[in-house]
Design a protein that fits this description.
alpha+beta, 2 helices, single chain, 17% strand, Ybab, Chain: A, 3-stranded antiparallel β-sheet
Length: 107
Amino acid sequence: MKNLGKMMKQAQEMQSKMTLMQEELKKSEHVGTSGGGLVSVKLNGKFEMRALDIDPSIFSGDDAEMVEDLIVAAFNDAKRKVDEFNKNEMAKLTGGIDLPEGLNLPF
């Protein structure tokens, strides 16, 4: 029974840490860029877009497709940074134990 009590306490501690981590993820900001900095996208750790900045100089031509491609590339760069940040935060929470593939807590 002592082990069960200890496990329950550890589960509660983990839940508390997960709640704090969720808040930290919402507060974190990650900027992705493309086109040598002409386009930037800011995401929080929950993959919510917070800002999109586009240098006006890229609107001088009629190439809307290029602008679209730069936005997508900047978003993907920011997403990669969020993924890496989240992975590092989860490693801190789990003590470096890798989670099974597909188990992406707390997301």
